[in-house]
Amino acid sequence: MNMMQVPEVSPAARLAGVKKRYGQVQALAGLDLQVACGEVVALLGANGAGKSTAIGLMLGLIAPDAGEVALFGAAPGSMAVRRRTGVMLQSAALPETSTVGELLEAVRACYPAPLTAEACQAWAGLQGLSKRRYGKLSGGQQRRVQFALAICGDPDLLFLDEPTTGLDIEARQQLWQAIRDLRARGAGVVLTTHYLEEAEALADRVVVIDGGRVVAEGSVDAIRAKVAEQRIRCRTPVDAALAAQWAGVLQAMREGDHLVLRVEDAVRVLPLLLGTDPALSDLEVGRAGLADAFLAITRETTQETQP
Amino acid sequence: MNALVLDERTPHSVPSVARIYWLETRNEFLRMLRTPMFALPSLLFPLVFYVMFGVLLNRGSGGMGSYMLATYGVFGVMGASMFGFGVTVAMERSQGLLRLKRALPVPAGAYVFAKTGMAMMFVLMISLSLIALALLLAKVTLTPAQAAMLVVINLLGTLPFAALGLYVGTLCGANGAPAVLNMIMLPMAFLSGLWLPLSMLPAWLQKIAPVWPSYHLSQLALKVVGGDAGQAVGLHVAALLLVTAVFAVLARSRLAAAA
Fold first, then answer.
1. What is the pLDDT of residues A215-266, one digit of tens each?
2. Which of A120, A161, A177, B237 is 20 to 30 A away from residue A203, measured at CA?
3. No. of H helices and E strands in chain B?
């Protein structure tokens, strides 16, 4: 490291060369990750990519086989660290016959400087629901209770595992605003999500995980540029094998009467397509979905490792 | 609006462990009290059985009334403790709540403490109701010291059955746990002489009765009302402590492995 550098404050979370194996499955194969205070980091990855394992390690729920995991420079899972973190797990069924107020009170009591119950409820959009039983709430309201429990300790580091799954648009944006507010007051946020727009709306940095390691990392724009592939679909008799040879075409497939092309830049491919078949119809041009984006990045890394 | 919200922080302090334990216990008790599938059988079965067998089918004989006061108290302890632990632990293990509790700054012991406190509250309600029924309906005579002693024995008797229920909860899924608990609890209650006096069972069943923890707890309770088999208190206490320790250790290792 550069000796001239001013020693940095230890990051909120740091994973270095972390490996974790479950039986035959190498869940993490040397993961490096840093999260600073005041930063929202979105972990993206397909199911089984290692996101949940990474979260489990940072929460101290599991131990790594190799490598280092530290939160605030200390071991994850210790009481001092847990008092500085907030958690919203992907699935945690809270007791159905407890009221919102009771649940919040018990979790707030565990933190040294919790937010007031009123503040938690206002932030999570739970006003007036304090006396309601958890089991009587809608799925979206239950998710908001879980969010309230995650933020009630006024954490320095917040883990949100797919926080907005099952929320309507309004509730989702309310949650996003709360996350931005927390970041503004200096909290680091680790977010996993399946929604690209969620990462776009919130993340300062996106980390794409695949096969247990980081395969892409950068600002939302940088990641988008990496996966800015597009999809062209139209009704045409043009041969897929021919189209596959055009410059800028990554893949060509036939779906019945339709030709489907995955391309780097639609603007460059469309003239060729229209030149070959001026009579084509049903033309659609779209951005690749998040799943396609993962595939693109993953394919790249596979090619790098196996030339 | 948020600027206002941001400032609404309570003063900085080290969280009070006592307060955490209290709130966890209160929440656990209230939520189980509001769960009819648990609260109704736990509270009512011992009382209904006592009224049926100790009062209605047993006109006038004070001996039977006090015998069953002791044994149905133990039956109540078993139900509240084994189901209060087993079913909820099985559920919370499979549905992620246990994972969440580990990630939150909840002290490690609070989870088991809260459930034990909850079970003891139910046991207290059962014991006091049974004593009231015994005094009012079965014409049992008890000194205040005897009544207090029965309550204390039942409260402490929660521990071995809580440990047993906890262990079952770490083994079973949420759907299987109630069936497994019933299959353990009901035969054990019968074979320990909780429903019928042991002397009415075949001799070989009487001989193996000391295998069951519920036998030892019922013998302690029966000592209070003068209906026990005359074995030493120390033997029963030792047996119950052993059961508590063994299942607590087994459950602990299962829970640690479940992380």
1. 888 887 777 766 667 889 999 999 999 999 998 898 898 988 899 998 888 8
2. A120
3. 11, 0
Contacts for A258 with CB less than 8 Å, ≥ 6 apart: A233, A234, A235, A236, A282
Q: Which residues of chain A are at the B interface, by a Cβ-Cβ cutoff of 8 Å?
A: 59-62, 77, 79, 82-83, 85, 87, 89-98, 102-103, 105-107, 109-116, 118-119, 122-123, 133, 149, 153-154, 159, 177, 181, 185
Q: Is B145 exposed, middle or buried (0-12, 13-18, 19+ CB in 10 A)?
A: exposed
Which residue of chain B has the CA closest to A76?
B103
Q: Does B15 touch chain A (CB under 8 A)?
A: yes
Closest to A88 (Cα-Cα) out of A155, A31, A27: A155
pTM, rounded to two decimals: 0.84
Whole-angstrom Cα distance, residue A237 to residue A279?
A: 10
Residue A250 CA neighbour count, 13 Å, CB half:
19
Q: Are B65 and B139 in contact (CB under 8 A)?
A: yes
At A275 the three-state DSSP class reads helix
Neighbours of A32 (CB within 10 A): 15
ipTM at complex level: 0.89
